[in-house]
Amino acid sequence: MKAAIVVFPGTNRERDMAIALRRVTGHEPRMVWHRDTDLTGIDLVVLPGGFSYGDYLRCGAMAAHSPIMTEIRSFAQKGGHILGVCNGFQILTESGLLPGALLRNANLRFLSQDCHLRVERTDTPFTHKWQKGDVFRTPLAHGDGNYTADQSTLDRLEGEGLVAFRYAAPNGHVQADDVASNPNGSVNSIAGILSENTRICGMMPHPEDLVDPLMGGVDGLPLFEGLVEALVR
Amino acid sequence: MKKTVDASLAQEFGLTAEEYARVVTIMGRTPSLTELGVFSVMWSEHCSYKSSRKWLRTLPTKAPWVIHGPGENAGVVDIGQGYAAIFKMESHNHPSFIEPYQGAATGVGGILRDVFTMGARPIANLNALRFGNPETPRTRQIIDGVVRGIGGYGNCVGVPTVGGEINFHPAYDGNPLVNAMTVGLARKDRIFLSAAAGVGNPVVYVGSRTGRDGIHGATMSSAEFDENAMAKRPTVQVGDPFIEKLLIEACLELMATDAIVAIQDMGAAGLTSSAVEMAGKGGVGIELDLDEVPQREPNMTAYEMMLSESQERMLMVLKPDRTEVARKIFEKWELDFAIIGHLTETGHIVVKHKGQVEADIPLDPLADQAPIYDRPATTPVVPEPLGAVHAPLSLDAALLKMVGSPDLASRAWVWNQYDSTVGGQTVRRPGAADAAIVKIEDTSLALAITTDCTPRYCHADPKTGGAQAVAEAWRNLTATGARPLAVTDNLNFGNPEKPEIMGQFVAAIEGMGDACRALDFPVVSGNVSLYNETRQPDGSPLAILPTPAIGALGVLDDVEKAVGLEMQDGKAVVLVGETRGELGQSIWLREVLGREDGPPPPVDLAAEKRNGDFVRQEILSGAVSACHDLSDGGLMVAVAEMVMASGVGCELESPDSGIRPEAFWFGEDQARYLVCVDNAGEFCARAEQAGVPARLIGLSGGNDLILPSGVTISAARLVAAHEAFFPALMTR
C-alpha cells in the first residue's frame, strides 16, 4: 500500500499518522504539500488532524478549496481510498466528499480524552479487522466534533449502513444523550462515516495515536492493518 | 503626538530620575522619544533583571551534561544518543490578569519561540498556574480564560500539553500566575544561538506584521497593579497560533540549511530587545531601516515599531548569499520576509525611518551601564513549631475532604481541554505518573518533565520552601525512573523595593541553590517576575505568596523502564523515607482545622539524594511496578492517589510508630516515596543496606481502600470526591 499524507498550513497530526502507517507498511508514507497536485501511484490518501488555516472561517472550510483538493476529488471519482481524521474529516465534509457537518462540541469546550468506539460495519477496507459490535478505545482531541446532518441525510446514512463508528460506553452501549460516552454530543453518537462506495472514511477520534503499547495500547492498529491488507497490490 | 522628552516622561516610562540622568550621560544629549523608549524597556525589571541579577548569579548552572546555561534563549542539556533537550519556563502573569485568554495564550506562544529559536522542535508544553480564592466569580472567570487560552494556543500549534500544576490561594486574587514551560528537541550539533556576526550581513524580519499591540508591555510587567489595571488592556498582545505553527515549520526548514548566522525571537520589548541583544552579544553594530518592517497598521512611528510586542515575529542574521533560499521557504509558508537592516562595525544601534535617524545608541553602555540594584532585604522570620493540635475529623472523613479540596482535587477538567497526545510520543499523560513522560521518536530515550512549587511553604519559610520546590521536582522525576538533569526556574514575587519581599527572594534563592548543588541539578534557564502585587480597594497592597516555580527535566535511557503511579493488584506497598509527622503548613492543617501556620517540613537534602537514588535504582532494576512521591497531603493522600489512578484498592496496616495517626498519615515529611513491589522483605533489606528507611504499609488488591481501623472507602467513592471540585466550580 502506498499512502500519501496531505499537509495543509496548520496541519499538526501528520507525524502521528506517518508513525501509524510506517508501523503497518514498514516504509515512510509520502508527505504531499497542499500546493502539490500529484497523487500518481497512491493507493490511500490521508487527510490528517490539525488546524488547517487556523480553523479560521470554519474548520476545514479553507483547506477544502486548496489546490490539492481538485486532485483528491478526481482520485475519489476514480474509486480511490481516502481516510480523513479529525480536521481531515472536517475537510471531507466541507468539500462535499462526505455528507453532514461538524459543529462545536456540545459543552463548547475543546475535548482531549479517551473515548470508546463501537464498530458498526465490517465489510469495508477500514473496518474489516474488527467484528461487528467490537468496541475499541481511542483518544479524541477536538473543539468541533459534534456531528450533525439533516434528517434525510441521517436516514440515508443509517438506512444504507454508512455509519462506520459510534461513540459508546466501554461495554458497547450507545446512548446519544449521555455525555460520558458521547462527549461531543454527536447526533446518533456518530463518530465516523463512510461514502456510498465505502472507500472514503471520515472520523473524529485519533486511532493513529493508539498503535504502540508504550503509548497506552494498540486499539487503533486494526484500522491500519486492515487498510494494508485491503489495499495490497 | 509630539511629546517632550524629559525626566517626567522618563518616569512615565518607568525610569527613575537617576536612571534617566544616566541615559542623558550616555547619550551626551537629551534622547529622542524612540531612544528613551529603547532605554526604558531595556532597563525595565523584566528585561534587565536589575533587582535579581546579583542573586541569580549565586545559582549553580554547570554540569557535564549542560550545553548552554542561562544567557541564551533557553537552557540546553545533552540527553544522549546525539540529542539535546532545550527548555525554559516563563511567566505571563500581568497580561493574564488583565486579559486571561490572550495573556495565557501569548505566554505559551512566547515560550515556544524561545525554544524553537534555538533549533529545537517543541515536543512538550507544561504550565504552572496559581489562582485566587475559587469562591469568587473573578477567579472563575480567570480560570476559564487561562485554560481556554493555553488550550487554544497549544492545541493549534500541535505541541502536546503534558503536565503542570495548579494552586489556589487568596493571595493570588489580584495577581494570578501563569508560568508556561516548553521543552524542545534538537540534534546536539545543530543548536542555534543569538550572537550576531559578520559586518554587512543582512538582518531579516520574518513572521507576523508589526502592529500597535503590546507597546510598553515589558514596562507594564515591571510595576504593581493599582485600581486602574484594566486600563492597561491595550498593552496586552493578541496571539495567532496558526501563524506560530507556520513560523515553527518555516524556521525548522530553514535551520536544516546553512543560511542562518544568528536568530532570536521578538519577545518582550519586541524589535528593540532582539536587535539590541543580538548585536550586543556579537559585539557588532546594527542598523535598521524601519520603512522595510512589515506593518499591520498605517502611519506607525519609529517609537511604536521599536516597542511593539506584536506576536509571532523573529529576527535573523543570514549569510548574504543565502537570503533567497530563506525567502523561498518563508514564501512557501506564506509568511512575511523582509530584509530590514544590516550589521555594522559602529557598535551602535541606529534606527532610521522615513529618511530620519530616529535613534543612535551605543550598545555597550546600554548593556554594561544598565542599572543593577542590591536592594535592602530583611531576613524572614521562620514560624515557631506547631505544637499539639487536635484532630476533629476521623481519618476517613479527613481524607475524603482533602482529596476533594481545591489544591488536591482532580485536574482532569483542565487537562481534558489540552491536547496531550498530539505527536504520538506521550508515554504518560497528565496525572498518570509523577512527571509527564514523552518519548524521543526513533530512540530508546524518553524525557520526564515536571513543574513544582509549594507556595505556602515558601511563604512560611522561603529558604526551606525554595529548597523544597527543587527537591520535589527532583523527586517527581526520580519517581518515574528518570535521571534528573536540570532545572528552569520561574521566580514570582512581589515588589522587590520592599525589604521583606526582597528578603523572601534572597532566602528562596539560597534554598534553591543549596538543593540544586546537593542534588547535582543545575539551573539552565529561567525568568523572574516581580511586582506581583495589587492594591486592594482599601489602598493596602496585596503581594502574592512567594512562588519560585521549578520546571525540571530528566531522561530515561530506556523508556520501557518508566513507571507510573497506578497501583497494581497483589503488590506489597512500601513506604520509603523517614516519617516524623510534620503537620506545619500541611493541607490537613488547612483543610481540617482551617489553619495556615507552623513551619514547613524540613528538607534534608542528603536524605533526598540517598532515598531518591535508591528508589531510581530499584525502578531501573525492575523491582518496582509503581511509584509515587509523597507531597501535599502526605502518606494517605498518596495511597489514595495511587488507588484512584487504577481502581485497585489497598489494605493499610496499623502504623505502630508512636506518632499520632493524623500526623503519621497526613504529615508532609519530605524525601519519601511509595512503591509497589513483589517482595517487600527483599526490598526493605536492600534499603537498609543503602541506609534508606523503608517499611511495609499495606497490600494492594480489591477495589477498596481499607484503613487500619477497618473503615473501608471504595475507589469509586474516592474518585467521586476527587473529581467533583472543578466541574462543580466551573459550571456555577
Give a structural overview.
The complex is a heterodimer of chains A (about 230) and B (about 725). Chain A is an alpha/beta fold. Chain A has one domain (about 5-230): Class I glutamine amidotransferase (GATase) domain (Rossmann fold, 3-Layer(aba) Sandwich), CATH 3.40.50.880. In chain A, about 20% of the residues lie in helices and about 25% in strands. Chain A has five helices and eleven strands. Chain A has helices spanning about 15-25, 70-75, 85-95, 150-160, 220-230, and strands at about 5, 30-35, 45, 80-85, 100-105, 110-120, 135-140, 145-150, 165-170, 190-195, 200-205. Chain A has a nine-stranded mixed β-sheet, sandwiched between helices. The longest helix of chain A has 12 residues, at about 15-25. The radius of gyration of chain A is 16 Å and the shape is globular. Among the domains of chain B are: about 5-50 and about 190-370, PurM-like C-terminal domain (Phosphoribosyl-aminoimidazole Synthetase, Chain A, domain 2, Alpha-Beta Complex); about 570-730, Alpha-Beta Complex (Phosphoribosyl-aminoimidazole Synthetase, Chain A, domain 2). In chain B, helix 19 links the parallel strand 17 and strand 18. Chain B has 26 helices and 28 strands. Chain B is of the alpha+beta class and about 725 residues long. Chain B starts with 6 loop residues before the first helix and ends with a helix. The mean pLDDT of chain B is about 95. In chain B, the strands form five sheets. Chain B has a seven-stranded mixed β-sheet. Chain B has a seven-stranded mixed β-sheet with strand order 23-25-22-26-24-27-28, with helices on both faces. Chains A and B meet through helix 1 and strand 6 of A and helix 8 and helix 10 of B.
